[in-house]
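Lab channel / #folding
Pinned by the channel admin:
"Please post every new chain as: sequence first, then the structure tokens as a reply. Keep commentary short and put observations after the output so the thread stays searchable."

First post following the new format, from NK:
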Amino acid sequence: MADPVEAELYLRRQAERALQQGEREGPFGGTVSTAATALVAVGALTREVAAEVMADHSLALFLRERGAPSFHSGQGVGVVAALNPPRVVACDAVIDLPAGQLTVLYVALRADSTIIAVSGDRPMTHLPGNPFPQVSISDDQGQHGMAMFSGSEGAHGIEGTLEVSPGLARNTSWLDLGGSRIPLSPSAPAEVSVSLEPLPQQEPALAHLWRQIAGAHRLRGVGFHGPGPDLEGAIDALAAVDAVDRDSPELAQVRAVASALTGQSLTGPLPEPWQTLIQNARRSPDQRAPRTAALGVATPAIDGVVVVIEAVTWGRSGLTARVEASPAIALGGAFSALGVERLTWWAEDDLGGVYLGGVITSQTRPEYSAATVEFWPALDPLARELRLMPTGTSHRAVVRVALAAGTGP
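Reply from TO:
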């Protein structure tokens, strides 16, 4: 067991060095928060002591006018709300709006919001300087609101969601979206099963490093899109408290995977599931029209985190899942929490394919977060089953989704 006094001294020295060098904590962390998170993960420091050091560092940065670090002490983030799965209806309806034509993939209705997942082949028409226009929406019980768009829009079209809050009637039989009526007829539910599995035991330091790689903010294509994990900073902190051997073959494997994810050539085989993931990285993008499996299922608690998966969508927009999680910090974002491990997102298909996901858009509410998780690489067009696996520190949920009705060329 590491000496907590030595661990605290190491962290304070890192904070002082960062201060002297004028290093700022970025929106997704920095040297000091990376070290603090690693030390808490292996039990070398308590969350409270690490948060105290980070608070002191924040104050010092503020006084020197270099900006405060982005971190969360972890207090108040452990309350798990009871998440009730929304009513989710697959649609595949085409609607005409003044700004252009959209395909409605599915609708998710819950008390606090109504989500309409949409895609379009062509960019929408805008007035100069105006963002995506709001869209009026109403239900069969006279409730109405204005839906806001969230997602991506480019030269080849749009992918995203329209959201209105508070939600419309959960039992409505139709929605009127900008003058186009979308029937919400009862449909055959997707074939889905949910289970909870324990993870194989692993040394805490190595487990933390693997989570850092898998949970990198945005992982796209062959490598990290945006800031990747400060792997060497975490290794330095772990080595300082004798939690990891710098020369161990296991650590060499961690470095090899991180190197491969930055696009560097492989010098040898990687451990699974990383080897399969990298091998499939060059798969051609999926050019099929978007298809959706409406789920609306909740998982058992994954190391204290409750997850709801609304739907999974695949096609030219990629392989994505719309999810919710409580506590809110479990989906990560620009403010990490000391001692609170965010979920990592894995998936497998029935052909042996492996996929790694990352949160690309999220909305945080007081008791939970909602997000879109994008998986990489593209879904194998011959897959007939997908297993979504939100993963914690000691357990993972397995959500099996039958794709037989919607896959293929």
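NK: The CA atoms of residues 94 and 103 lie 4 Å apart.
TO: also worth noting, Residues 217-227, 405-409 have pLDDT under 50 and may be disordered.
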